[in-house]
Specification:
Layout lengths: L1 E6 L3 H11 L5 E7 L6 H15 L5 E2 L14 H4 L22 H11 L4 E5 L4 H9 L3 H4 E7 L16 H5 L1 H10 L3 E4 L1 H5 L3 E2 H8 L4 H9 L1 H9 L4 E2 L2 H10 L4 E7 L1 E3 L10 E3 L11 E7 L1 H12 L1
Parallel strand pairs: 1-2, 1-4, 2-3, 4-5, 5-6, 6-12
Antiparallel strand pairs: 7-8, 9-12, 10-11
Helix pairs in contact: 1-2, 1-13, 1-14, 4-5, 5-8
This protein binds beta-D-ribofuranose and calcium ion.
Calcium ion binds next to loops.
Length: about 300
């Protein structure tokens, strides 16, 4: 599998990227970055550091520094100021990002190898929408487009209570992306809530004696505390679940295809994904919505990546 990852890393983004880098059947050929959880100027070094930890190479591109239209502010209560849980004793990286802009890199790669790349988006869809706007052939040249984002039943995780963060952060970009990709795969917030990693599983993994496990333990400290205050029964894995079902589609236990768009207005609902669950709109399905998956299979991918 030839993969491009678009990310706003982000603690769980880092884990998703690690999972892909540890996968023997995948080459991560580009990591494009975007403002989301934190500003892109923090996302870039976070991604470079993940490459250091995993001792892997991939070109990293700096992308959009703000949503298309929406105002932006960082999600520091989730990922902390640095985007990596205010990780103490962070080593310096010698790596540098490429000079090419992420959006140009996306378009160039898709044109160099049409029909070959799997694109996994782990943040707001700003870069993706810009690439499709600059080159309308971009979406059909991508083999498979998977994104973490959206809600199925309007149970969101943002100030707009029905909206999930990645869509809420840049609703116009998400609207544009969903309109132009023939078939996207969506890993929603409710699917995330329904598939936590149990706390004993999480603790066993983060106690492994490897640099990757120590990194995961140190960087997830703030999110673990937050999740525990919400009394969730385990550690939540939004971006890693999207990556896991991409790497191993046999982990999907239930999914369905729907016409999906994004609410751009609404007093309370801007950024909500609107799902035509009764096929009333007359629009063709454009999104495969993942509903159930094999969480033990995901834990096995974590074990491989941390070993
Ligand atoms: C999404 O928002 C971010 O906080 C996570 O990295 C994930 O991509 C979950 O709503
Ligand atoms: Ca993310």
């Amino acid at each position: 599998m030839r993969m491009i990852i678009d990310t706003d890393a982000g603690v769980d983004d880092a884990q998703a990227i690690m999972m892909a880098l540890a996968s023997p059947d995948v080459t991560v050929e580009a990591i494009t970055t975007v403002t989301g959880n934190v500003h892109v100027d923090k996302v870039v070094p976070n991604v470079l550091t993940v490459l250091d930890i995993m001792k892997k190479d991939a070109p990293v591109y700096r992308g959009a520094d703000r949503p298309l239209i929406a105002d932006w502010s960082p999600e520091e209560h989730v990922h902390a100021e640095d985007g990596l849980g205010n990780w103490q004793n962070r080593p310096n990286t010698q790596r540098r990002a490429e000079s090419e802009h992420a959006v140009n890199a996306l378009i160039r790669l898709a044109n160099q190898a049409p029909g070959q790349y799997t694109l996994v988006a782990l943040g707001p869809l700003t870069n993706i929408a810009l690439a499709a706007q600059l080159d309308p052939s971009f979406p059909v040249k991508i083999r498979q487009f998977v994104f973490m984002g959206g809600t199925i039943q309007a149970m969101g995780n943002t100030a707009n209570l029905t909206s999930e963060f990645n869509i809420y952060c840049d609703p116009e970009a998400a609207y544009m992306a969903l309109r132009v990709f023939p078939m996207a795969t969506m890993l929603s917030w409710e699917t995330t809530l329904a598939h936590p990693m149990t706390w004993p599983q999480f603790e066993a993994l983060t106690e492994l004696d490897t640099d990757a496990a120590r990194f995961m333990k140190a960087t997830s400290r703030v999110t673990v505390e937050l999740i525990k205050t919400y009394r969730y029964p385990g550690y939540l894995l939004p971006d890693p679940l999207a990556m896991a079902i991409t790497l191993q589609p046999d982990l999907i236990r239930q999914s369905a295809e729907y016409a999906v768009t994004v609410e751009l207005h609404g007093t309370h609902t801007r950024g909500q994904t609107i799902i035509d669950h009764m096929a009333r709109s007359g629009h063709k399905p454009n999104v495969r919505v993942i509903q159930k998956l094999d969480i033990d299979g995901v834990a096995a991918l974590y074990r491989r990546m941390l070993a």
